[in-house]
Design a protein that fits this description.
This protein has about 575 residues and is mainly alpha-helical. The chain contains 20 helices and 15 strands. The termini are far apart.
């Protein structure tokens, strides 16, 4: 008899229900025999823990959204009460003093590999089932390979050189022999793409439960993987982009075909802001291709809420006491939303003068992404942001801007406290249709084969932004802001269009933890961030000693604990860590 460990004995809702019992991989929940496990009625029990861990293993300091690690970008400051508050993230923010032994380097590695372990445990058992007798098996295998791909994708973006756990039946000796440099960078991305391709070929167009990935979700992740793969970084002594692969870009175009998504009812929300609202009628909307599912009032003590944003909430006295005020938008990001008198952005000179709300024009998405002094917090006029400690625990070190996409109106039932921390039940969209279309625009622009379509995608998003004013329609009259945006109308060269697409991507995806990874993917991190450090020092003095080292700071180091435990099988990333 084969022993099946770490499998839940109770049926738990598949919509990513929290399950704290699954946190410790060393504590098996029970041992099931072949007959119990291979019973068709137990198939969903086998995959539940693989979904649940994406919620239960998240932490305020280690969010799978990666906001904690996006503080390395030019979009956001770390925030908090000062540089010593979450100091290990401060070192990431200034690209100085990063140690391989820091807990935040090791913690995310461990959490993500635990997630992959859950998927592989389910795959090991599902592989022994008869798909002809149990038709659902094929789809469940595809779901687990999708989740495994998701885990490897996040790890690869963070650490680059990682061991791949692609054999769900790997023995303990096999694990001990794994190396993190077995595959080239290009080969590693292809391994991840293979999981998503299997999922694409075996998942249904529409799932009966929203937490499960569909065929369109697999297509989106395939496209994203190929987009990262396209920017080759295969020189073992460098993190620089050595070439851009046209075949990979054509795969991006293939898997971002709007017809794939339209068949399942996916498309753009009519209002940009709808993507970041907690009300049930806005969750799992047309733009949400795949999302982490959160809830409350579901019979559990605190609900299946998202606590991973618990550090982001500002500390409003008597309202959100305990809010820690992390992940604060940068002045540089605010400036990026400025538009000229014609409604187009300043692509090259947006940071020459800091944005002035009363005299400068701005893209409406600015006020849906960032809470600005002089405007309401979360569109609630009871809380007007100002230049006081209420809106900056650091007393101005990290400025007074507030991110809006992750927070909710504190006067609603969606603002939920547990101990010192605040959570909310708003889903976190992992694959958003606007992101998918921007990937398509980027691939088309890089290929130089259909520039008009790439520009049309950008203009569609800009036109959507112009109409996304349902909650800010009175901002001009009440707060003196000036909103002005229009689509591009001229013809552009390939290089000009790439610049347009990249800037539009920054605006549309701002504060969604994509920016730093985009800069690394494009090979622009060192140039962009060192320029940012110099320009931003007047607004945020922590950058006075910041310096980004090319061929080092693009990726996190392999954790010291993992190197030590690998018996020489793991190689440290380049950069003299």
């Amino acid at each position: 008899m084969k022993l099946y460990k770490y499998l839940p004995l109770a049926v738990i809702a598949i919509a990513m229900t929290s399950c704290n019992d699954f946190l410790d991989e060393q504590k098996p929940q029970g041992v099931l025999d072949d007959e119990q496990v291979l019973n068709a009625d137990n198939i969903d029990n086998l995959v539940t823990s693989a979904y649940a861990i994406w919620i239960s293993a998240e932490d305020i300091n280690s969010s799978f959204s990666m906001w904690n690690y996006d503080v390395r970008s030019d979009d956001a400051y770390k925030g908090g009460s000062g540089t010593g508050d979450g100091e290990v993230f401060h070192t990431l923010e200034i690209s100085q003093g990063i140690m391989t032994s820091q807990w935040n380097i090791s913690d995310m590695w461990q959490r993500l590999y635990n997630c992959i372990s859950r998927a592989n445990s389910a795959l090991s058992v599902l592989g022994e089932m008869n798909a002809e007798e149990n038709p659902i098996v094929e789809s469940r295998i595809a779901e687990m390979r999708f989740l495994r791909g998701h885990g490897h994708f996040l790890l690869k973006r963070l650490y680059k050189n990682i061991p791949f756990i692609m054999d769900e039946n790997l023995s303990q000796d096999g694990y001990n022999e794994l190396e993190n440099t077995t595959y080239s960078n290009d080969e590693g991305w292809q391994l991840i793409a293979n999981d998503f391709e299997y999922a694409y070929n075996h998942l249904p167009e529409i799932q009966d439960q929203v937490g499960r990935p569909s065929k369109a979700a697999a297509a989106a992740y395939l496209a994203k993987t190929y987009l990262y793969k396209a920017y080759h970084q295969d020189n073992a002594a460098s993190h620089q982009v050595t070439s851009i692969d046209a075949e990979d870009l054509r795969n991006v175009v293939k898997y971002t075909d709007p017809a794939i998504y339209a068949a399942a009812g996916f498309g753009l929300e009519p209002d940009f802001h709808n993507n970041f609202r907690p009300e049930p009628q806005y969750e799992n909307g047309p733009e949400s291709v795949w999302a982490m599912q959160y809830s409350f009032n579901d019979g559990t003590v605190n609900g299946n809420c998202n606590w991973s944003y618990g550090l982001i909430v500002p500390a409003i006295p008597g309202v959100t006491d305990g809010g820690c005020d992390f992940y604060k938008p940068s002045q540089n990001l605010v400036n990026a939303f400025k538009t000229d008198e014609t409604g187009l952005p300043y692509l090259d000179t947006f940071n020459d003068k800091d944005y002035d709300m009363t005299s400068d024009n701005a893209d409406p998405r600015l006020f849906l992404t960032i809470g600005m002094p002089g405007t309401p917090y979360m569109f609630n006029k009871n809380y007007i942001i100002d230049y006081t400690a209420t809106w900056s625990r650091s007393n101005g070190t990290y400025g007074y801007y507030i991110t809006l996409k992750q927070n909710v109106d504190p006067d609603t039932e969606y603002n939920i406290r547990s101990g010192l921390w605040w959570g909310n039940p708003m889903n976190r969209i992992v694959l958003r249709y606007a992101d998918i279309q921007l990937m398509r625009a980027e691939a088309l622009a890089q290929l130089g084969e259909n520039l008009p379509e790439a520009l049309e995608i950008v203009n569609t998003l800009r036109n959507r932004a112009k109409l996304s004013t349902s909650v800010i329609s009175d901002y001009e009259s009440l707060y003196g802001v000036r909103m002005n945006i229009r689509p591009y109308s001229d013809s552009y060269s390939k290089d000009e269009l790439l610049k347009i697409v990249k800037h539009e991507r920054r605006l549309e995806m701002a504060m969604e933890s994509e920016r730093f990874f985009d800069l690394v993917r494009w090979g622009e991190a060192a140039q962009t961030l060192n320029k940012y450090y110099i320009e931003e020092t007047d607004n945020c003095g922590i950058y006075a000693g910041a310096s980004f080292t090319a061929d080092k700071n693009e990726y996190l180091p392999i954790p010291f604990s993992q190197i030590s435990a690998s018996n020489g099988h793991y190689t440290q990333n380049i950069g003299s860590w």
